[in-house]
Amino acid sequence: LHHNGSLFHPNACIAPHVHIYGSVLIDENAFIENGATIIGPAIIGPHVKISASAVIYRSIVFLNDTAGQKYSYASNKSFCNQASEDNYRTWPLFSYPRFWKRLCDITVSLTAIPLLFIIFISIAAAVKCTSRGPVFFKHKRQGLRGKTFLCLKFRTMIINADDIQEKLKYKNQVDGPQFKIDDDPRVTIIGRFLRDTHLDEIPQFINILLGQMSLIGPRPSPAKENSFCSYWRDARLSVRPGITGLWQINRTRKEGQDFQEWIYYDTQYVKNISFPEDLKIFFKTVIKLTLNFFKHF
């Protein structure tokens, strides 16, 4: 059976609400549950079972023993076919991604920190005066080649936000490892404004100066999120994470597609990284932030 460039065996069992993108081959007696996502090119072998909410990204999934009809199971906690070793992309020493991009980051951070100092102090005072807890939210994220660092933000939530998130999981409005709901009760009064205008990310210029982040790059993510796919992880961790990036300016937030767009734009950015591309992302971000800021007035 043919479907939008894909080929399905007549005996394959595919639930009606499976998301399939690109060329996908599904063999006989494969079982794909509702909510699963398969991004091609991909091959799902005979008798393989893909669970609800699992994401298969450009993988070949086969069983070791099809004769005994044992199921290979892909859960929503991880991608199939994960590599056992790192495959980071590398560049020559004096290339733009490795040398000149870092030089630009140092220049930008040294310029931005003094210019934003008054705004920095004002926001810090507002956070401290409007809610109980520290001024900064520090979270462990993975940077270049998986090195862990503390990503800085102005705190926008109440201090027990992580505990409350467990109780709100059923309201999650995005797919993949992210969590997002409208009118999140954990967000403080000043926090909502800081998030909408992205002013909560100003402290990340310190991360840039320390060499942990870049102005432009993939979104900084914790190890738990990066473990969803080794190939996607290795691509995005080949460069420093950024305050803004290709995914942030292009995401559509369409239901069931946000994580797939995240994967696509992160890998595209690393594949095509260049100064003109970074410049284009920078100016699009400035326009977007300016429009978001003036919506509040």
Structure description:
The chain is built from 10 helices and 16 strands. The protein is an alpha/beta fold and 297 residues long. The longest helix has 20 residues. About 7% of the residues have low confidence.
**Into which percentage range does the β-strand content fall?**
15-25%
Which stretches are poorly predicted, pLDDT < 50 over at least 5 residues? 65-84
Tell me the strand order in the biggest sheet: 1-2-5-8-11
Largest sheet: 5 strands, mixed
Distance between the first and last residues' Cα: 55 Å
SS content category: alpha/beta
Shape, principal axes of CA atoms:
globular
Radius of gyration, taken over Cα atoms and rounded to an integer in Å = 21 Å
> How many DSSP H or I helices?
10
| Number of E-type strands | 16
Helix content, binned percent: 25-40%
Element-level helix/strand string = EEEEEEEEEEEEHHEEHHHEHHEHHH
User: For the residues shown, what is the average pLDDT?
Assistant: 84
